[in-house]
Amino acid sequence: MTNHILTAAPLTAQGFQPFGDVIDTQRTPDKIINQGMCDRYTDLAQLDFSDGRPGISLFDAKARHLPYTVDLLERHPEGSQAFIPITQTRFLVIVAPDAGGVPGAAQAFLTAPGQGVNLHRGVWHGVLAPFEAPGLFAVIDRIGTGPNLQEHPLQTPYIVDAVAG
User: What is the Cα–Cα distance from 152 to 77, expressed in whole angstroms?
Assistant: First the structure.
């Protein structure tokens, strides 16, 4: 069995647009608040839930290192899922388009410290993968009844063997 090789590209709003939203402060703030002491960046992600309600959870994830093997992709058909780092940990984001109910060709992105992502509802993605250091994340996703997780083990894993730039 031959592995698919991926190089993780820097995470940009344009490159990640088919899969979700980039959550960061790399633009002009919407407002200056708190007597001029705080920049406010408003409405950075399009949360989307079929039912249920948004919930905030904390994920404390162990570090991943290169080469990193991706042998499972998952998706959440009933709601988007946002990952916002609390620590300044970079993380790998593996995503794939849907190809008739299974993941298509995967892509890999590497966040900059402080960047987060909101995965659109139904987007295939890898598990949370802090890069080279553990990470604590606020996760905003659907809380509700009924299944909201589909897992797809990969017969041919992907190997992330490098990061660009």
Answer: 13
DSSP state of 78: T
Q: Give tens-digit pLDDT for 85-118.
A: 999 999 999 999 999 999 999 999 999 999 999 9
The DSSP letter of residue 103 is B
Contact 82, 111 (CB under 8 A): no
Q: Cα–chain-centroid distance for residue 55?
A: 16
Tell me what pLDDT residue 27 has: 87
Is pLDDT of 121 > 90? Answer: yes
pTM of the model: 0.93
Range of the domain at 66: 4-163
- The CB density around residue 97, as the number of other CB atoms within 10 Å, is 13
Q: Hey, how many other C-beta atoms are within 10 angstroms of the C-beta on 90?
A: 20
> And the tokens for 53?
């309600």
CATH of the domain at 15: 2.60.120.480
Q: Domain count for the chain, please give it.
A: 1
In the 8-state DSSP scheme, what is residue 120? P
Q: In what order do the strands lie in the sheet with 53-61?
A: 20-23, 116-119, 81-85, 135-143, 53-61
In the predicted structure, residue 1 carries a pLDDT above the cut 80: no
